[in-house]
Design brief:
The chain is built from one helix and 27 strands. By secondary structure, the protein is mainly beta.
Length: 315
């Protein structure tokens, strides 16, 4: 099935630009949510064949400094004064509105659990981070804790623990460690990286955290512990499926790494766009349809391609 967004808010070339989103679309309430290229509008598209991608609803979110986040069947909008408004993703009616103690501008993230969204925000003195977990359905706070250091949420583990990356302000905010926080016990543990890294992006799988940095350094901490060099100057956020870790490089290569050992299993040839030296500004993370299936990636030459996950060496 193929269709185009029928966004009636713009025409001609401007319409084409506004239909492009730099973030992955989210399916919620029977609609496909995407952001405009500049992030100023949230569009709800009809993903059905009959709908042909028509825009069923759109909202100007430029006034929400905390942005918009779709979690489960809620759209969370964070205003400059710290007020969070939740809309129903099906009806677009307001379900709740509130502020959360310890947060001036909560920026929410989620990791596959429709019942939990996390906000992590540095304290005014710069010495700690206020971390709060809420239920998007009604805004109820599951737990809230002030943790020392400058932290960013990386993901949740299989045990329910939350993992956060640690950056050091004295080292130009390079990432130096990962914190494992267990909300059930209130205990936290710091897992040091082998060396500080720049531009880190992380993914959590099971009880392991995989950190990919600018320059290609790839490290695993937690249950699996290893570090390797991938020679990728800039990579997408990594994803894990079926014991393998996938990410794309700026030249369009898709790489597969063994999540347990760190061994490079395979990579596709580059897919470059000669008009721009083969590189793009943003790198969307690959997507998989499960173990033994396929992994899908986008390349600078404008293609979207698929590769079989069972044979990375044959890519």
């Amino acid at each position: 099935m193929a269709w185009r967004s029928k966004d009636r808010t713009a025409t001609g070339k401007n319409a084409a630009k506004k239909a492009v989103s730099r973030t992955a679309p989210v399916l919620s309430g029977g609609l496909l949510y995407v952001f405009s290229n500049d992030g100023s509008r949230l569009l709800a598209l009809d993903p059905s064949a009959d709908g042909e991608g028509a825009t069923r609803w759109s909202k100007d979110v430029s006034g929400y400094e905390g942005g918009a986040k779709v979690v489960g069947d809620r759209i969370l909008l964070a205003a400059a004064d710290g007020t969070v408004t939740a809309l129903d993703s099906t009806t677009h009616r307001q379900r709740w509105q509130k502020r959360f103690p310890g947060h001036q501008l909560p920026l929410f993230s989620s990791f596959g659990d429709a019942h939990t969204a996390y906000a992590a925000e540095g304290t005014p003195d710069g010495k700690a981070t206020q971390v709060t977990a809420i239920d998007p359905a009604d805004g109820k706070v599951h737990w809230s804790r002030r943790l020392p250091g400058t932290l960013a949420v990386a993901g949740s583990g299989a045990s329910g623990a939350l993992y956060l990356t640690v950056t050091d302000p004295t080292l130009s905010y390079r990432t130096t460690a990962v914190v494992r926080y267990d909300p059930a016990t209130g205990h936290s543990r710091r897992l040091k990286l082998t060396a500080p890294v720049d531009g880190a992006s992380a993914v959590v799988h099971g009880e392991s955290v995989y950190v990919l940095a600018e320059g290609g350094s790839l490290q695993a901490v937690g249950r699996h512990q290893w570090d390797t060099e991938t020679s990728v100057s800039r990579g997408s956020a990594p994803v894990v499926s079926g014991g393998q870790l996938y990410f794309t490089a700026a030249d369009g290569r898709l790489l597969a790494v063994d999540a347990e050992s760190g061994e490079l299993l395979g990579q596709t040839p580059p897919r470059m766009n000669g008009r721009h030296n083969g590189f793009v500004e943003t790198l969307p993370a690959p997507r998989t349809d499960g173990p033994g299936g396929r992994v899908y990636a986008a390349a600078p030459d404008g293609t979207v391609f698929a590769a079989a996950t069972k044979d990375p060496a044959g890519w």
